[in-house]
Amino acid sequence: NLEPGENSLDRMIGEVESGIYLKTNNSWSIDDSRNKFQFGVEWGQLIENGRLTKVVKNPSYRGVSATFWRNLKMVGDRDSVGILGTPYCGKAEPNQVISVGHASPACLFGGIDVFGGED
Is the pLDDT reported for residue 112 higher than 90? Predict the structure, then answer.
């Protein structure tokens, strides 16, 4: 879990000249050392001059964990907190499955590799 900060979602979006607001991860891949990752997202919205604009379907982002967290610019307040999770997190042999989740405020990152997506 990530503790809430002091910034409203509107304030964070207003700070962005050109970017994308990503919402609802729907796929993920993390290497065994928990260093490199890639996430697919159900939808996003472009941010242009501090305003949400066009919807983008199925964008993805990837990175290296330490670099990703060093690029954290702002953390959202309590009103931006969402609870995310999956009913099927599996590992081990034989396979063990459990429901997992975490709470997180919205966050603003810079320098993230975002790719794919469609109008």
Answer: yes
Contacts of 11 (CB under 8 A, 6+ apart): 74
Domain-embedded: residue 114: yes
Q: Specify the number of domains making up the chain.
A: 1
Residue 3 placed within a domain: no
Checking if the pLDDT of 39 tops 90, the result is yes
Short-list 38, 20, 18, CA closest to 30: 38
Distance from chain centroid for Cα 34 = 16
Give the separation between CA 82 and CA 24, rounded to whole angstroms: 10
> What is residue 34's DSSP assignment?
S
The residues facing 27 across adjacent strands are: 40
Instruction: Give 74-97 pLDDT, tens digit per residue.
Output: 999 999 998 877 777 777 888 888
Classify residue 98: in a domain, yes or no.
no
Host domain of residue 19: 9-78+106-118
